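Protocol step 4 of 5: obtain the predicted structure for the target chain.
Materials: sequence only (see below). No template structures provided, no constraints applied. The aim of this step is simply to have a reference model before the mutagenesis design in step 5. Sequence pasted as it appears in the construct record:
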Amino acid sequence: MLYDAPEGGMIMSDWNSNQYMKFGAERTQPSADLVNRLGSISPSRILDLGCGPGNSTKKLAERFSDADILGIDYSEDMLEKARATYPELKFERSSVPDDLDKLGGKFDLIFSNACIHWIPDHRKLIPAIFDKLSEGGTLAVQIPYIQKAPFYRLLNLLVDTGEWKKLSVIHNFHNLFPEEYYDILSGLSESFNIWETTYYHTVSSHDGVIEWYKGSGLRPYLDMLSDEEKPRFLADLSEMISENFPRRENGSIILKMPRVFFTAKK
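Step 4 output (structure tokens):
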């Protein structure tokens, strides 16, 4: 949530924290899981990079109650939500990587949950973030595994042909494959771990799948459409989802969410 300019120069509207947090528990779980993998570290100074509505910052504060924690994000809407929900925590507006040098000093833990896939050029980005760590500090990152997500496979098919082909110019995600993160991290650290987890979230209807992604990956596509086009686009997308996301025996829809995690020690 720190970078809002997809390739091609289109500027997206600000995030909608209320839409994003319609699935607050599900969106928070990966950050909780990442916190739990940090072991026995005792960071004095923590940066939550891409803090969004503050849910990940709160998890960090619960685990590291004595630490000085700063949450940063580019979205004013997300920061407003974070400050209102967690007034005891510190949040600042910042753009990464441009503002990294403006963050004074080093951090013992830099934590980023579901953020850096929005930021280009990870081969330069990750070393730049890693440079903000103190000696012995830890980088901890979670990102959606966009390349394996069933929803994005369908979305890409929809925008590749026909009426919605104009949307194919949008390239708002910048994920690499886990093997590429291995190469980057191996050049920075002698102690790192990479793993993948697929979450099986459930929604009550196929519209629930669209509601989830309205809070994240669908934003640039909807921003590019007129008010007349949006309902037709969502109807076409909903039809594809209905055909590819079958109802389970209890009537629910499984929303598979593969995610990549990594930690690295400086």
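Step 4 remarks: Residues 229-244 form the longest helix (16 residues). The chain has two domains: 26-144+176-201+257-265, 147-172+205-250.
Proceed to step 5.
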